[in-house]
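debug: dumping io for the single-chain case to check the tokenizer round-trip. Nothing else runs in this session.
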Amino acid sequence: MFVTAQEMRDAEEALFAQGVVAEELMNLAGLKIAREILNRFPSPGGRLAIAVTGKGNNGADALVALRHLKEAGWQVAVRSCAQPATFTGLPAQKWQELGPVTLLDDLQHLPENKGLILLDGLLGIGTEGNIREPLATLAREMNTLHHRGRAFTVAVDIPSGLNCDTGECGEDTVIADLTCTLGRPKQGLIADAATSHVGSLAFLELPGLSEFDTRHDHLICPATLPIQRLHRPYDFHKGDAGRVGIVAGSRGLAGAAALCALGALKAGGGLITLFVKEQDYPLILPLVPIEVMVRPVLSYLEILHERLDALAIGPGLGKAGTDILSLISQFQNPTVIDADALNLIARRGTISSLRPNQVVTPHPGEMARLLPHPHPQLTRSQIARQFTDQSPATLLFKGARTLVTSRESPLAYNTTGTPGMATGGQGDVLTGVIAAFLARGLEPLEAASMGAWLTGRAAEIALQTESLESLTATATASHLGMAFNDLRAT
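debug: decoded output
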């Protein structure tokens, strides 16, 4: 599914040889970029979009998108590396079609604007090495606004200055909050070194270019998610939605249990039961959504006698006892294993004894404990493969570019999320969401991928009213409904 720069050029040339007109493809690409921006920023009031362009076709794509934003009621302007009178071909044509627009001399003297969107259209997929002048000056201007928190940067196809094949970044490579990759995702976008420059990813399909062979490494995005599995017939009932069991929470960590239960609830779990130790019951009960049943137990092994379709184990358990390991090994239905349950496995168990229907969700620190001797130079994808070589479990490897895979499966890279999710409780919500999908009957890889995309998208939507600093796990969970609607509308 991922392509090099040359493979992308070859695919485009083959398409043009079939009679497809380059301008038609450009018009569609620009329209889709504009729609992606409008979807993320639905209110035009006070919004200013600035296309920062070179003289090539990426700049023309940005101008097409800018025209659609202008037609939607946005204020627009252009910052170009050259006078538009020097443009030729499609860039010249798209400049004319844009109509009257302010041409800026720099980005340093803009009026204060709470809704500034920068469209990075400086360079395309052929970049190698550092950006040269005069484009480097424009890239630095964009990055300065980004660092000051004054702008949201959208890269057209690939951040300018990023090597399409390797993901290597030059000195002035544009730092994007969102990259709208066109037609086919570029190989360099998923490199570890590229993550902080790429931001979240939107994969925009183009007819004749896009393909979705999930038998190979791919992006987790609406086109590759089993959206049809979410369908609820009219006679659907809570039993069909699945019975979710949650083993979470302890003294001082009651919030983790509540957030996990909230995640399962907002992801559509039919009947949700939170199991807690008797001594912790009065501490946890007041925090849990009223729709969730809370059951005190003397031993977690009592859960083996319950009728459950899926189980989530780990958030906020603290120093869990060996009965957790016994529960993990003896409960035969799909299970999500997270947080303190993972740490217990790292201390006393072995990942080789896990099963394919068990989803483990480590962050990098937990992964380092599960794999006690990782090579320090391994990439995230190599670490994921090292895990699946040793364990048959389904893996969701958390991070800025969350990975989902298993021993017999390709690597799937999540496209959603935000740095605002770097706060306590986000993983607890994710665990509950995955458990709800497992209880519904989704396969472990499907449930993990769906959970990663939806929670990341919910967090992105929450930023319409929150800041990166104020985003909480509760806010992410509360926006899951909008994320579901967004997924279905794609």
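debug: round-trip ok. The chain has a mean pLDDT of 94.
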